[in-house]
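Researcher: Final request for today, and then I'll write up notes for the group meeting. The sequence and the SMILES for adenosine-5'-triphosphate follow.
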Amino acid sequence: MDAKIVVKEIKKSFKDLPVVGGVSLDVRDGEFVAIVGPSGCGKSTLMKIIAGFEQPTEGEVRIDGMVRRGPNPKGISISQHGSVFPWLTVQQNLMFGLTGDGHGDKSALADHYAEMVGLKGFESSYPHELSGGMLKRVELARALVVKPEILYMDEPFSALDALMNLKMRTELLRILAEERHTVILITHDVEEALFMADRILVLSPRPTRIQATFEVPQPHPRKLSQPQFQEMKEQILRELGVTI
Ligand SMILES: Nc1ncnc2c1ncn2[C@@H]1O[C@H](COP(=O)(O)OP(=O)(O)OP(=O)(O)O)[C@@H](O)[C@H]1O
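Model: Predicted protein-adenosine-5'-triphosphate complex:
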């Protein structure tokens, strides 16, 4: 079967600064790919190119076999900065992306996704009445409610405390088991990648390339304390120039 996303020899420079140095990648339908790499290597730039928000200097991105040169309606991005509208309630935020017909009862659909991410009872709350973790849940629900085929996640949980971060990982995996999405996740957290991804790509310093690939075939839920994960974590950290 053809890949859902095909990234072919992508290069990107900003003026004289080469940022992406030639990246090729195939992502299968329903696959979860995590990308780790040194700070400033070009992870976000690569993600923006794949999501269609940035144009490559060379190369192309195909989604379902079609070359894309702009944001892809089949995908949705969740970034570390957040995009919840402060003047809308949780329910209104979730309904915001449901443009056009074909969604059925939009408020019921919004409430369904609010419940799915654990926000039942907060549908009428405004963002300023929620905690940081709850805001991230709104963000996630807002992305999922439009039933995207692809989720592009750039450090989505990095602003959360460690405990909430762990909760959100588990939550996301539970939702992904229910609703199959293709996911590309950028993270600086190797354990987060090991916990969730089917495949982990380690990027090189700028201009970035894929330096190493790790398949993670272990089923969920994963216990990262197991030797095989510790071993893989050490290998990935070694690729990143960190020895523990
Ligand atoms: N729009 C832009 N114009 C000019 N330079 C840019 C632009 N976007 C990114 N860069 C540069 O590209 C390089 C890579 O940035 P990018 O944000 O892609 O890296 P990153 O790996 O995601 O970083 P971090 O690990 O800090 O999140 C940086 O040197 C940055 O200054």
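Model: Residues 81 and 95 are 20 Å apart (CA to CA). The helical segments are 43-51, 90-96, 106-116, 132-144, 162-178, 190-196, 227-239.
Researcher: Thanks, that's everything.
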